[in-house]
Amino acid sequence: MRKIALFLGLVFIVHPGYAADVSDIALERYFKKTTVSGNHVAALKKRIFQGDVAYLATIHGYPNNLAVCESLIAPYNSDASKSVLPGTYFCELL
Fold first, then answer.
1. Quick check: is 58 in a domain?
2. DSSP assignment of the chain, as one string?
């Protein structure tokens, strides 16, 4: 796991424009065909204005990434005052 994080960190240092060039669709396509430590990645997203979806984070490195993601969003969905922008958080297994 540390080797993967180190490699990704080096990629962004050596080629800092790489991260800005990846679209949400390309990122999802990558994670749907790739696992991290044998587990699928969970995407943390938020439904915002007029049905648009904001891609906020990926959760990886846990045996059950989806369960971790859902536990992270539970407080925000149960109390709207904890979030600045209106909308509902949700998780998606990639």
1. yes
2. -HHHHHHHHHHHHH-THHHHT--HHHHHHHHHH--BTTB--EEEEEE-GGG-EEEEEEE-SSTTHHHHHHHHHHHHHH-GGG-SS--EEEEEE-
Number of other CB atoms surrounding residue 50 within 10 Å: 5
Report the length, in residues, of the chain. Answer: 94
Q: pTM for this one? A: 0.71
Torsion angle in degrees (nearest 10) through CA of 43, 20, 38, 46 = 0
pLDDT tens, position by position, for the chain (94 residues)?
Answer: 554 444 444 444 444 455 557 788 888 888 888 888 889 999 999 998 787 888 899 999 999 999 999 999 999 999 989 988 889 999 999 9
10 located within any domain: no
Residue 72 lies in a domain: yes
| Contact by Cβ (8 Å): 93, 42 | yes
